[in-house]
Amino acid sequence: MPILQPEPSIFPDDLLARGAEDNMERRWWAVYAKARQEKALARDLFAQQIPFYLPLVPRTSSSRGRRIESLLPLFKGYLFILAREEERIETLRTNRVSRLIAVDAAETLRRELWQVQQLIARKAPLVVEARLAPGRRIRVKSGAFMGIEGVVEEQRSGYRLIVEVSFLQQSVSVELDDAQLEPIE
Hints:
The chain has helices at 38-47, 85-93, 106-121; strands at residues 10-11, 27-33, 52-53, 56-63, 66-73, 78-83, 97-102, 127-129, 137-140, 149-155, 158-165, 170-176, 181-183. The chain is of the alpha+beta class and 185 residues long. It has a 6-stranded antiparallel sheet with strand order 8-12-11-10-9-13, with helices on one face. Strand 10 (149-155) and strand 11 form a beta hairpin.
């Protein structure tokens, strides 16, 4: 059981569901936070009402014989903001940012982050993949992950669906049965 209550990892709740037409005056930015500052930065952004997404996943560790559950950033060091110019400057003023990276393919990033959010919401055991794996693009046609698209990778134990966040050149993966998968033409 976590010691602290979960904090918001997304603001507003429908941030990733909105299309580009809803955010004409805002721009997506990948924020690379200073070491171990992702959650504190998310708290600051929430307090200032700046739209952000920090993908968090549960991790269990043990210390002195006790199990400790915590929520850790999925992409170490990164969170994402959808900000106007003045909000971007306020983000920099938090003194928790190492660098800001402008996103050119905003709609692609929004869609990929939405897919990652869906995997996290379904409590999938995610593994961060350091590089994008070569393979065929597929779509999950049934089950809890229906509609999620990615690249399939074959392994001894079965198949893994790899969902890319191409902007970061990273991805997450989850094991699936090949009967759930269909190729995208």
